[in-house]
Amino acid sequence: MASTTGASLKFTSLSSSFKQTQVPLRGVSNVNSVSFPSLRMRPGSLRFRVSCAAKPETVNKVCEIVRKQLALPDDSSVTGESKFSTLGADSLDTVEIVMGLEEEFGISVEEESAQSISTVQDAADLIEKLMDKNCA
Amino acid sequence: MMEKGVQRWVVDISTWDPSTDDFSYALSLLPQHHHSSITRFVKKDDRKRALISWLLQYALVHEVLGIPYHEIVIKRTLEGKPFLECGRVCLDFPNFNFNVSHHGDYVAIASEPLCLVGLDIVSHVIPEKETVLEFIQNFSSCFSSLEWDQIVTAGSNDEVLTELYRYWCLKEAYVKATGSGLAYGLHKVEFYHTSWTDISVKVDGVRNAQWRFWLSELGKGHYVSIARGHPISATESYKRTLNQTKFNEEEYNEGLLLPNVSFVWRTVEELFLVIHKAKSSC
């Protein structure tokens, strides 16, 4: 049964809430090395991070990923305040964006956390929180 | 006359190319407090879709329930699902409720007199920056193993995509019907079908016979699904907007077994006319 969520954004015309993606690939061969990064699987990569990324860098990276996914023109404004739904993310886009963020930052986003994200800043904050955990 | 509460309307917005003035006019047909929810969208196409979504809601409520324009109050739950605030005006039906969806060229609305209704349109988009296999991987956790097997063994890339989109469309209709939105748990709803008819569902592994589903195509590679189900399955916030969530079997079947009607095509111009007239009359 579907249960009440915080601020599910499905009905604001275009949805922008996130979905957890923890289940690994099922029965389909990897064409690319698309992996589901998780803390347990990539401890080695922590060594190569200079530090847990500074806030503006993280936000910018999220903006970049979102821009690409939503095919937004370079001149369109995407900032920390930008809401995914407002930028035009539909339900499929939203899942792809989370996947993109997980890959980019080597994190695993829980369903509960994903649902509270509505802006780029929310995503960046969550990413940093998860990466802090990685570093600790 | 419960049948009257079952409505399925769709608009093709691909040929509507409004100038700034045209768009302002269209916007003026809607109450001021909805305007920002339309104009906030960055892309023009999204603004168009949002505007038509609202017009459909007002037109539907006005035509089906006969509520005067100025008395129509449409709000949204915490999760964002629109609902009609009823009061004394919609007692014709036990639970008049509706749902809108848009994707690609179409915007549609569906209503039901008793059961929850969810609607979803999915446009068959071919991924540009990645292969089909790479693309579908993103969504693997949203499907049960049974469904995933169906998807990956569907055949050509096109057939694989079609299978994915169809399942996705049904799942979306279900979560939209309950009012939870795109939340977790898409993989908990497992669909069974016979060539995409006789569609049934298992929720958390348990067969739920109180739901009906239909999947069809609107044209130009757009899939559309309808979910009809028991009000008891709605989220708490959406349940509060309904009149009745408990029914005995006979009462519930009156709603569940109503015929599913085909989509009726409306045009943007028609909608303008309907709303304009409704707005101008006292």
From TrEMBL, chain A:
Residue ranges constituting the Carrier domain according to the UniProt record: 56-131
GO molecular function: acyl carrier activity; phosphopantetheine binding
SUPFAM superfamilies: ACP-like
Keyword field: Chloroplast, Fatty acid biosynthesis, Fatty acid metabolism, Lipid biosynthesis, Lipid metabolism, Phosphopantetheine, Phosphoprotein, Plastid, Transit peptide
Top-rank lineage group of the source organism: Eukaryota
Subcellular location: Plastid, Chloroplast
Main location: plastid
Record-level GO cellular component terms: chloroplast
UniProt-listed InterPro entries: ACP, ACP-like_sf, ACP_chloroplastic, PKS_PP-bd, PP-bd_ACP, Ppantetheine_attach_site
Biological role: Carrier of the growing fatty acid chain in fatty acid biosynthesis.
PANTHER family in the record: ACYL CARRIER PROTEIN (PTHR46153)
HAMAP family: Acyl_carrier
Record-stated family: Belongs to the acyl carrier protein (ACP) family.
Protein name: Acyl carrier protein
Organism, scientific name: Theobroma cacao (Cacao)
Gene behind this protein: LOC18603424
TrEMBL record, chain B:
GO cellular component terms given for this protein: cytosol
SUPFAM superfamilies: 4'-phosphopantetheinyl transferase (SSF56214)
The UniProt record lists the keyword DNA-binding: no
Record has Transcription as a keyword: no
GO biological processes: lysine biosynthetic process via aminoadipic acid
Any one Pfam family match given in the protein's UniProt record, by short name: ACPS
Protein's UniProt name: holo-[acyl-carrier-protein] synthase
